[in-house]
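Data deposition worksheet. Section B asks for the primary sequence of the deposited chain exactly as it was used as input, without tags or linkers unless they were present during the calculation. Section C holds the resulting structure in C-alpha coordinate form. Section D is free text for depositor observations; keep each observation to a single sentence. Incomplete worksheets are returned to the depositor.
Section A, Depositor: J.P.
Section B:
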Amino acid sequence: MSFSKIAVGGGCHWCTEAVFLSLNGVNKVEQGFVSSQDFEEAFSEAVVVTYNNSLISMRDLIEVHLHTHKSTSAHSFRHKYRSAIYVYSKKDYVRATNMLNALNLDFDQQLITKVHYFKQFKPSEERFHDYYYANPEKPFCETYISPKLKTILTKFGKLANREKINASREAI
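Section C:
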Protein backbone atom coordinates (compact mmCIF):
# COMPACT_ATOMS: atom_id res chain seq x y z
CA MET A 1 0.00 0.00 0.00
CA SER A 2 1.14 3.49 -0.80
CA PHE A 3 0.12 6.20 1.65
CA SER A 4 0.30 9.95 1.11
CA LYS A 5 -0.50 13.01 3.20
CA ILE A 6 -2.31 16.23 2.54
CA ALA A 7 -3.62 18.80 5.02
CA VAL A 8 -6.79 20.81 4.44
CA GLY A 9 -8.58 23.60 6.19
CA GLY A 10 -11.72 25.54 5.51
CA GLY A 11 -14.01 25.37 8.47
CA CYS A 12 -14.16 24.02 11.95
CA HIS A 13 -11.74 21.12 12.36
CA TRP A 14 -14.53 19.05 13.95
CA CYS A 15 -16.42 19.33 10.67
CA THR A 16 -13.41 18.77 8.46
CA GLU A 17 -12.31 15.75 10.49
CA ALA A 18 -15.75 14.11 10.16
CA VAL A 19 -15.79 14.68 6.40
CA PHE A 20 -12.49 12.92 5.82
CA LEU A 21 -13.12 10.16 8.38
CA SER A 22 -16.20 9.34 6.28
CA LEU A 23 -14.25 8.52 3.11
CA ASN A 24 -13.04 5.14 1.93
CA GLY A 25 -9.28 5.07 1.51
CA VAL A 26 -8.57 7.53 4.31
CA ASN A 27 -6.32 5.84 6.82
CA LYS A 28 -5.97 8.56 9.47
CA VAL A 29 -7.21 12.10 10.17
CA GLU A 30 -5.37 14.32 12.65
CA GLN A 31 -7.39 17.29 13.86
CA GLY A 32 -5.75 20.52 14.95
CA PHE A 33 -4.01 23.61 13.64
CA VAL A 34 -1.69 24.02 10.64
CA SER A 35 0.72 26.76 9.63
CA SER A 36 2.29 27.21 6.22
CA GLN A 37 5.73 28.22 4.97
CA ASP A 38 4.59 31.41 3.26
CA PHE A 39 2.90 34.63 4.34
CA GLU A 40 0.09 32.62 5.98
CA GLU A 41 2.34 31.42 8.81
CA ALA A 42 -0.31 31.87 11.51
CA PHE A 43 -2.00 28.67 12.61
CA SER A 44 -5.47 27.94 11.28
CA GLU A 45 -7.89 25.09 12.02
CA ALA A 46 -7.20 22.14 9.74
CA VAL A 47 -6.72 18.39 9.52
CA VAL A 48 -3.87 16.24 8.26
CA VAL A 49 -5.20 13.39 6.13
CA THR A 50 -3.22 10.20 5.51
CA TYR A 51 -4.72 8.28 2.61
CA ASN A 52 -4.18 5.19 0.48
CA ASN A 53 -3.37 6.27 -3.11
CA SER A 54 -4.78 3.06 -4.53
CA LEU A 55 -8.23 3.68 -2.98
CA ILE A 56 -8.67 7.46 -3.17
CA SER A 57 -6.84 10.15 -5.11
CA MET A 58 -5.60 13.58 -4.14
CA ARG A 59 -8.06 14.99 -6.66
CA ASP A 60 -10.95 13.17 -4.94
CA LEU A 61 -9.89 14.57 -1.56
CA ILE A 62 -9.59 18.11 -2.90
CA GLU A 63 -12.93 17.89 -4.70
CA VAL A 64 -14.71 16.64 -1.56
CA HIS A 65 -13.02 19.38 0.46
CA LEU A 66 -14.15 22.13 -1.91
CA HIS A 67 -17.77 20.93 -1.84
CA THR A 68 -18.01 20.49 1.94
CA HIS A 69 -16.98 23.95 3.11
CA LYS A 70 -17.55 27.51 1.91
CA SER A 71 -14.68 27.46 -0.58
CA THR A 72 -15.91 30.56 -2.43
CA SER A 73 -16.67 32.70 0.64
CA ALA A 74 -14.18 35.22 2.02
CA HIS A 75 -16.06 35.56 5.32
CA SER A 76 -14.69 37.42 8.34
CA PHE A 77 -13.41 34.28 10.12
CA ARG A 78 -10.96 33.23 7.36
CA HIS A 79 -8.01 33.94 9.68
CA LYS A 80 -9.25 31.11 11.91
CA TYR A 81 -10.77 28.97 9.15
CA ARG A 82 -8.41 29.45 6.21
CA SER A 83 -9.65 27.78 3.02
CA ALA A 84 -6.49 25.94 2.13
CA ILE A 85 -4.74 22.85 0.88
CA TYR A 86 -1.37 22.21 2.50
CA VAL A 87 1.12 20.10 0.60
CA TYR A 88 4.47 18.54 1.45
CA SER A 89 6.29 18.72 -1.91
CA LYS A 90 6.73 20.90 -4.97
CA LYS A 91 5.21 18.13 -7.11
CA ASP A 92 2.06 18.10 -4.97
CA TYR A 93 1.97 21.92 -4.98
CA VAL A 94 1.82 21.95 -8.79
CA ARG A 95 -0.72 19.09 -8.88
CA ALA A 96 -3.00 20.70 -6.27
CA THR A 97 -2.84 24.10 -7.96
CA ASN A 98 -3.77 22.56 -11.32
CA MET A 99 -6.61 20.63 -9.68
CA LEU A 100 -7.97 23.78 -8.07
CA ASN A 101 -7.95 25.57 -11.41
CA ALA A 102 -9.79 22.70 -13.10
CA LEU A 103 -12.30 22.23 -10.27
CA ASN A 104 -13.11 25.94 -10.19
CA LEU A 105 -15.33 25.27 -13.22
CA ASP A 106 -17.72 23.37 -10.88
CA PHE A 107 -18.56 26.58 -9.00
CA ASP A 108 -20.54 29.70 -9.90
CA GLN A 109 -18.09 31.91 -8.01
CA GLN A 110 -14.29 31.99 -7.89
CA LEU A 111 -12.69 29.63 -5.36
CA ILE A 112 -10.79 31.41 -2.61
CA THR A 113 -9.00 28.21 -1.59
CA LYS A 114 -5.21 28.49 -1.82
CA VAL A 115 -2.42 25.94 -1.93
CA HIS A 116 0.32 26.37 0.68
CA TYR A 117 3.41 24.44 1.68
CA PHE A 118 2.86 22.69 5.01
CA LYS A 119 5.06 23.96 7.84
CA GLN A 120 3.81 22.78 11.22
CA PHE A 121 0.93 20.96 12.90
CA LYS A 122 -0.37 21.31 16.46
CA PRO A 123 -3.05 18.80 17.49
CA SER A 124 -6.28 19.96 19.08
CA GLU A 125 -7.23 18.78 22.54
CA GLU A 126 -7.79 15.02 22.73
CA ARG A 127 -11.38 15.49 23.97
CA PHE A 128 -12.32 16.99 20.59
CA HIS A 129 -10.89 14.17 18.46
CA ASP A 130 -13.47 12.14 16.53
CA TYR A 131 -16.03 14.67 17.75
CA TYR A 132 -18.80 13.89 15.28
CA TYR A 133 -18.68 10.11 15.52
CA ALA A 134 -18.63 10.31 19.32
CA ASN A 135 -21.49 12.86 19.42
CA PRO A 136 -23.68 12.64 16.28
CA GLU A 137 -26.80 13.70 18.21
CA LYS A 138 -25.34 17.01 19.46
CA PRO A 139 -27.05 20.05 17.90
CA PHE A 140 -23.74 21.31 16.46
CA CYS A 141 -23.18 17.98 14.72
CA GLU A 142 -26.73 17.77 13.39
CA THR A 143 -26.66 21.39 12.16
CA TYR A 144 -23.18 21.64 10.65
CA ILE A 145 -21.67 18.21 10.11
CA SER A 146 -24.58 15.97 9.10
CA PRO A 147 -25.33 18.09 5.99
CA LYS A 148 -21.69 17.71 4.89
CA LEU A 149 -21.96 13.93 5.22
CA LYS A 150 -25.18 14.02 3.22
CA THR A 151 -23.24 15.85 0.48
CA ILE A 152 -20.68 13.05 0.52
CA LEU A 153 -23.39 10.42 0.20
CA THR A 154 -25.24 12.18 -2.64
CA LYS A 155 -22.42 13.81 -4.61
CA PHE A 156 -19.51 11.47 -3.85
CA GLY A 157 -21.28 8.18 -3.16
CA LYS A 158 -18.49 5.99 -4.53
CA LEU A 159 -16.06 7.56 -2.04
CA ALA A 160 -18.35 7.41 1.00
CA ASN A 161 -17.81 4.96 3.81
CA ARG A 162 -21.54 4.25 3.92
CA GLU A 163 -21.24 1.73 6.73
CA LYS A 164 -19.63 4.29 9.03
CA ILE A 165 -21.95 7.15 8.06
CA ASN A 166 -25.10 5.03 8.38
CA ALA A 167 -23.99 3.63 11.75
CA SER A 168 -23.72 7.18 13.11
CA ARG A 169 -27.18 8.01 11.78
CA GLU A 170 -28.66 4.93 13.43
CA ALA A 171 -27.15 6.03 16.75
CA ILE A 172 -29.21 9.23 16.66
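Section D:
The chain has one domain: 3-166.
The chain has a mean pLDDT of 92.
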